[in-house]
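User: Assemble these into one structure.

Assistant: Restating your components, then the assembled model:
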Amino acid sequence: MTVRVGVLGATGAVGQRLIQQIDPHPDFELAALTASSASTGKSYREAAKWRVDSPIPEDVADMTVVATDPDEVPDDVDLLFSSLPSSVGEAVEPEFIEAGYVMSSNSSNFRTDEDIPLTIPEVNADHLGLIEVQRDERGWDGALVKNPNCSTITMVPPLAALDEAFGLTDVRVSTLQAVSGAGYSGVTSMEIIDNAIPHIGGEEKKMETESRKLLGEFDGAEVQWNDAEVAASCNRIPTLDGHLENVWADTAEDVTVEEAAEALREYPSIDLPSSPDQLIKVFEEPDRPQPRLDRNQSDGMGIAVGGIQETENGLQFNCLAHNTIRGAAGASVLNGELLLEEGYL
Amino acid sequence: MTVRVGVLGATGAVGQRLIQQIDPHPDFELAALTASSASTGKSYREAAKWRVDSPIPEDVADMTVVATDPDEVPDDVDLLFSSLPSSVGEAVEPEFIEAGYVMSSNSSNFRTDEDIPLTIPEVNADHLGLIEVQRDERGWDGALVKNPNCSTITMVPPLAALDEAFGLTDVRVSTLQAVSGAGYSGVTSMEIIDNAIPHIGGEEKKMETESRKLLGEFDGAEVQWNDAEVAASCNRIPTLDGHLENVWADTAEDVTVEEAAEALREYPSIDLPSSPDQLIKVFEEPDRPQPRLDRNQSDGMGIAVGGIQETENGLQFNCLAHNTIRGAAGASVLNGELLLEEGYL
Amino acid sequence: MTVRVGVLGATGAVGQRLIQQIDPHPDFELAALTASSASTGKSYREAAKWRVDSPIPEDVADMTVVATDPDEVPDDVDLLFSSLPSSVGEAVEPEFIEAGYVMSSNSSNFRTDEDIPLTIPEVNADHLGLIEVQRDERGWDGALVKNPNCSTITMVPPLAALDEAFGLTDVRVSTLQAVSGAGYSGVTSMEIIDNAIPHIGGEEKKMETESRKLLGEFDGAEVQWNDAEVAASCNRIPTLDGHLENVWADTAEDVTVEEAAEALREYPSIDLPSSPDQLIKVFEEPDRPQPRLDRNQSDGMGIAVGGIQETENGLQFNCLAHNTIRGAAGASVLNGELLLEEGYL
Amino acid sequence: MTVRVGVLGATGAVGQRLIQQIDPHPDFELAALTASSASTGKSYREAAKWRVDSPIPEDVADMTVVATDPDEVPDDVDLLFSSLPSSVGEAVEPEFIEAGYVMSSNSSNFRTDEDIPLTIPEVNADHLGLIEVQRDERGWDGALVKNPNCSTITMVPPLAALDEAFGLTDVRVSTLQAVSGAGYSGVTSMEIIDNAIPHIGGEEKKMETESRKLLGEFDGAEVQWNDAEVAASCNRIPTLDGHLENVWADTAEDVTVEEAAEALREYPSIDLPSSPDQLIKVFEEPDRPQPRLDRNQSDGMGIAVGGIQETENGLQFNCLAHNTIRGAAGASVLNGELLLEEGYL
């Protein structure tokens, strides 16, 4: 049975990726597209300047874009994906949940609120239990689930594998992030050609807080955040897609490269349509993963790790994920699949 | 009085930058250019494929390139600059020193040898005292001084300032390095367009060892290496010039952002022609320094620092230097100036 | 029935693309891989530094690379694809043809020889008749077919459509070519980042001669070259794949934009596995085709045209094709399919 | 005696280049900076996001930005430079001229109006005579002079040299234009990394009309446009600065490469501070000029030509100029110098 879904903020960079993910999806059927008032009433083809490097799906192209308003979305839509700007999402998402919609959102608002599940299905699917908490506390009929920021999601699966096996104490991460992470117009060409920018507003804080919530324990009532120290340094570089990260993970126990590689490779995936068979791919070649060569593995949903080395206090390694697929649209779709699997739809 | 100088390995990327630095130099006069046998006997114009973005100096263009052999270099040349490939340098540099030449070398061979001074004049000019040790031990008439690797030189001045003021305990550094650091043909376009490579062979080790030697104490006989832990993670990105680095510097004493900024700004420069008036420029803007905007400050000889933040154990900051000027050719020229100043010529 | 095929020069950039095309092919089965002596005896995985952005096919990875010598290729191989350097191809390709092999070659040698068919199957499949001529003249048992240069192949299908409909008199073309056209190491990053190079050795001549042969008439004995004037100006730009070309096509008859678009859209394709259903896609949007967005249409085998305008003497338009697929490996595979279809295997 | 000057639209990309040009100018002194209402009342340092790769001049940084209104500009300002958006310029520039100001404008409005001089001082300084015509016709006290579009200005000096010597009949030009030509935010990074865009709105028309006006004859009353056919095809590529153009120039007389090179080299410059000693530099190397290597020659005010070849009907060649210096800010400053020289201030 197919679930009818809607996309809030359908014309942006992540919105386009959402449509690319949902259009061929076995369980989801696109039934509503919303955008800001400049696009309302237009066909999606007119409203969106389509820039994904596969053609715009023909049936989606002819859909009419509606306003981002619960009254404009058909009642038989069961699941909403949100890629609204966070300032918009903060105001509008609760209106939809109050109206009874179940929503998987990529927007950054509410991610660290106590009663909002922030989930990567392979890592902390049980945090979905917070939906009961949020319904109790907020009187919501619907449900709201968030996926983390694209830079956070890249490192958390390997950190979760290492934490489980060896105990994390201290994490430092330096990122080399692709321009698509800032949206279509976020980084101008004059800013980034032959250049790098050692600052992405708010990003370091997101990595430091979201990762500790994701790696935390849900005790049935609340999430006890992981108490590892996490410090991030974020950089924008001239790549289109794929965030590469250098991580130092200090561990409670001593660990060898081989033990780490094994823990990473054997970290379990989850049986959902968009989740890869093997979640974490470990490269032996010291110069991998690389954004252009490795971002598309497992249809952009894989996490790649390489360059594992022992340090004084633990390990250092590099990790990579496709920031607009695994780090945004695909992450939301995967959370939607989890909501379906767990009976929330 | 002008010193007649020669450049060994004059046709490569660093060799061209050396010529660009030396040609207008107040104290140095180009008197010999050497290269491999393919170039011998040709005019420099023919032998070098000039790619620096200022024109080839006309008088240099007409000089004849000779073999990299002490017999081919005129006797009245007093100072040699070497940008030979390290495998060549290892064999050939000693021949020149034995023949009595004084050499400032950018090549990586011998850098961590006990009796070879590895110097950044503003940081550890006193290590030049090792020349007496090397003459004693090796029976050399000449002298050999090395400058560090381009990625090392970018972070060592700020680390020296912080070590002096607050005591360094642990350093982790992640680099975003320009393609020119690999030489003209070192990185192909297909490797790096829309990409980053999280590995530069041997580079992490160089940063970890050279920095500890540079920050060490010379006691008149040998250098006691600094005992801070240093761990590096090196990346190549699609920038032409300018290495950007994210540094975590754990310190023995607590330190505020303001104290750190002051220690960096007030770290003394040295009175040599190529040294900037202020060695370390500290940016207030969180998104600076950036390679394209800041690599040319102080004619490419400045060190730029920004993004200073307090952490649990000390500080994190970003630093930047022009890798083929401050990090290579200019570093060698500056060491040449120090040799002249200190009476070794 | 599957045809067993071999790839000569299998480790290079085009060789890798050939393997990517042939591995899933319905009619072809990889049975031999050759390379230069440095690779002989190694597994393909070891010999090739695989850089295509899909994984190396596992069964191919374990094949052993042999020397480029007819004695080293198994006798039951029926078809060879050659992506040898042209200087090597000139010496070695005839040895294979003399030994009875049928070869589809991407190498530039022999392309304008009178008895060598230079074919784009959708445009001039009948030129394959030259095989009889070459067998008569050279006493060959096998057969040799060439595909044109990647920059030529991009413009010839639209020129053929316009020539047939309106008669070409004069062609001027300016190219914006991707770095992959020069092979993996052909363009260094220092040459091309923030730059363009208005010269590609020999390329203009190839475009001017090959296009006139391709557009010529085969009368059963020889090809009468098309007598349109063709002048080319070739540039390298910082794109990875996809050659974009600005064309002025002066025509004998007056032609409107609509008539031109119709002639292009209706130009027939051919019924071979690698040929697209519609050969030439015509964009209405004035800013298309673009290399990154449009190079992969029809699995990289389509020709895209846009920006059609009327001029004083005919038309101007832009065209685009994927240079290492439609312009090299895919072009060779398509010629192989034509050889199979036409009974030469 | 120093002329006090103002810059209209001082915060944009061209405005910043104007300030970089004017600040060290021997004859001009910055006395007024205007911008849109968002910047009014702020210091220039605050109002402009300075992105030129030399530091912001300290004295300029502290100037207060005023509204783009004749009442806000001090009366003792004698010359205005305008880099307003053309839609703004169309409304506002006449207000300043009516108020008596003399203006050198880079904005595209009015460029092809009959009574507005469009000048490149080395090419058609005599067109300044149109100022009398415009004063008569419009009742203006001040004067308005325009410089051409950046892509036009690159090719017109070589075309003027060839027209004078051999007679131009037909010109076709294909451009490879840098992103800075579209202003700081004009081209996003996602649009242009690993890509090229074969369309720049209105640009082809500008090249076709402006060039014919520039190459026309001023008879004392009006400019008789040159009657050569000019057709342009414009492309944006991932370069920061420097427009490269492939030109076919058909000529009335036969011409050899040597004759063409001589006519280009000997085309006279003009004796103004910003004009280079030699206007057109002719490269012998077939792969020059290149944007990154050659855009800064003669402080960015030179025109570089290379790749000259004979064709059936004349010549083909490549040309290059720095688009925001020679093609915009420097062009305006040079026109300002001409106005001063000719006594209009």
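The interface with chain D takes residues 13, 51, 179-180, 184-194, 238-240 of chain A (CB under 8 Å).
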